Amino acid sequence: MPSPVAHSLVSMALVAPKPEKEPWVKWVGFWVVMGNFADLDFIPGILIGAPSRFHHGLSHSLLFAVSLAVVAYLLYPAFFKGHRAACWPFLAVPFSHLFLDMMTRDTVAPYGLPLFWPFSHHTVRFPFWVFLNMNRGTRFHILFSWHNLAALCLEVVLTFPFFAWAMSRRDGLNLLKPAWRKVVRDARRWIRKKGTV
Ligand SMILES: [Zn+2]
């Protein structure tokens, strides 16, 4: 897995626009938690002194990602004073977590993610990696090692341009919305053209 830094940067590039008058901290917090939620499976392992014990379990499945999206979508108006947002960022953010994890060097069994849990326990990963693994442990020298620093730098180099590009979009951090609108507009045009032939 990449660190929360990569997950957070990519998540923030995919989020719904900030509702007016809502504090930035609250809004960023909501999406950063969404983007990192799957890795809460570290907590039970940390409590028993073996952080990786339950990692890459059911919280790294497609079913969990969709369930998280539905729950977050339903809770969103309660968090943000009745404000509603398009549904795609709620899916894009947890899916980006799985995508990034599958592109990360995995050195701890089970290798890959149980994407199709509970239908299959087979783990899936890409045949290549672009992110270095973070060494995990409860000891200071493992967490704050040169290896982890290098992994962190690589993550920032790879994900920050995407985040910065999304930030520079006209409607804020919302990257996919204009792209999606264009796809829908083009599809409508195409259908209309076919109808007149
Ligand atoms: Zn993860």
Verbal overview:
It is a single chain. With 197 residues, this protein is an all-alpha fold. The chain has one domain (4-196). Helix content is 56%, strand content 0%. It has helices spanning 4-14, 24-36, 42-47, 62-79, 88-102, 140-143, 146-167, 176-196. Helix 1 (4-14) packs across helix 2, helix 1 (4-14) packs parallel to helix 7 and helix 2 crosses helix 5 (88-102). The longest helix has 22 residues, at 146-167. The mean pLDDT is 86. It binds zinc ion (ZN). The site of zinc ion has 6 residues, from helix 5.
Short description:
The protein has helices at 4-14, 24-36, 42-47, 62-79, 88-102, 140-143, 146-167, 176-196. It has 197 residues and is mostly helical.
Task: Name the descriptors.
single chain, 197 residues, mainly alpha, globular, binds zinc ion
Bound ligands, each once: zinc ion
Give the radius of gyration. 19 Å
- Strand segment tally: 0
What global shape is seen? Answer: globular
Provide the succession of SSEs.
HHHHHHHH
Helix share bin = 55-70%
H/I helix tally: 8
Q: Please summarize the sheet with the most strands.
A: none
Poorly predicted ranges (pLDDT <50, ≥5 residues)?
none
Mean pLDDT metric: 86
How much of the sequence is in beta strands?
A: under 5%
Distance between the termini: 51 Å
Number of domains: 1
